[in-house]
């Protein structure tokens, strides 16, 4: 089997600076459009956001999208039209399955420090499903030198449930740690986003905030070249 891959270097990402929001876009989003970076299979959006103290996104609508939020620093207050109100912070994973349609807001809870977060959109495996919300708190120490599952299509698994055949993992590896990742489902691809440090995926080096997608493969070798934190997103490739 011959694999295919794509490397997205940090400095090739799109960006926007709204004052209250500084955003980096791995894929086309809002005013950033790149026909070569529309999505990776079912992975449609990967935004790396910094929200200023006391600021945020007002109430706005979504539909037919699985929206995963991963706070990296600070506290984000969530409210939605289903009546959910929650605070999410580092160690928490949130999913909002928009389905037939919802509205939500996300605001920096604190007036004296910024919020850093990843927001990820995944196209669902079926349209117009019933919307749902979930949020979990994980032990960050459980991802030291191993993968911590944070998203799964199986309701009894660790992590939040997603309406797609997708699996996400966070990891914090010491230098020299190697992991052979076997894909959960045939036909899926792997997109790895390196949060910090240096990572080698097969023979490709990823520096801080680089993204790397690979598909038509059953297994991938991941080696930390330094102390490294990274996010693995396994998503379907066919039909997207």
Structure description:
The protein is an all-beta fold and 240 residues long. It has one domain: Jelly Rolls (Sandwich). It is built from no helices and 22 strands. The protein has strands at 4-8, 14-17, 21-25, 43-51, 56-62, 66-73, 75-80, 85-89, 92-97, 102-108, 115-122, 132-137, 147-152, 160-161, 167-173, 178-182, 188-196, 199-201, 204-206, 211-215, 219-224, 228-236. It has a 7-stranded mixed beta sheet, with no helix packed on it. A 7-stranded antiparallel beta sheet has the order 2-3-4-11-6-9-12, with no helix packed on it. It is globular. The model has no long low-confidence stretch (mean pLDDT 96).
Helix content: under 10%
Q: Give the ordered list of helices and strands.
A: EEEEEEEEEEEEEEEEEEEEEE
Total strand segments: 22
CATH names the topology as: Jelly Rolls
Strand order of the largest sheet: 1-20-17-22-15-13-14
Backbone CA Rg: 17 Å
Number of helices: 0
Low-confidence stretches: none
Annotation keywords:
240 residues; 7-stranded mixed β-sheet; 7-stranded antiparallel β-sheet; 55% strand; Jelly Rolls; 22 strands; globular; 0% helix; mainly beta
Quick rundown:
The chain has 240 residues and is mostly beta strands. It has strands spanning 4-8, 14-17, 21-25, 43-51, 56-62, 66-73, 75-80, 85-89, 92-97, 102-108, 115-122, 132-137, 147-152, 160-161, 167-173, 178-182, 188-196, 199-201, 204-206, 211-215, 219-224, 228-236. It has one domain: Jelly Rolls (Sandwich), CATH 2.60.120.
Produce the secondary structure layout.
Elements: E1 4-8, E2 14-17, E3 21-25, E4 43-51, E5 56-62, E6 66-73, E7 75-80, E8 85-89, E9 92-97, E10 102-108, E11 115-122, E12 132-137, E13 147-152, E14 160-161, E15 167-173, E16 178-182, E17 188-196, E18 199-201, E19 204-206, E20 211-215, E21 219-224, E22 228-236
